[in-house]
Give the backbone structure.
Amino acid sequence: MIERRFKTRSVNGTLAIGQNVAELMLPAPKLIVLRGELGAGKTTLVKGIATFLGAAEPEDVTSPTFTLVHSYQGKTIRLYHLDLYRLETERELLTLGIDEMAAEPDALVLVEWGEKFPSIVARADGEIAIEHGDGDERMFFVRVK
């Protein structure tokens, strides 16, 4: 298990942390739970990860709050970004095809609000928890198998 801690006070710092964290999540496949309050910086972190993987520019990565899943193809990795905030049941979760995504040999599946579902937590290869500090400060706690 790899464990790292990062701290930032800016959006650019969060993007840079995303690029550092992306290296820790390779090789694929991996399923990672992203934990944090609304506005903590989960999607901004994904922007940095997507940039590192060559999958998307930061401005092209948006929160999948209403679409539930966004997919980005990188040079060697397919990045799936899921947001389960609006889901309530395991049945709804099954319709997303997370098992199929996570089974792809080149997939990195990042799941916001995955902690709502014990089945996701149980099969996750790690998690990134984001906590608010003073002002704009954010702390990132990374655990990846």
The chain has five helices and seven strands. The domain at 2-144 is CATH 3.40.50.300 (Rossmann fold). The chain has a mean pLDDT of 94. The first helix runs from residue 11 to 24.
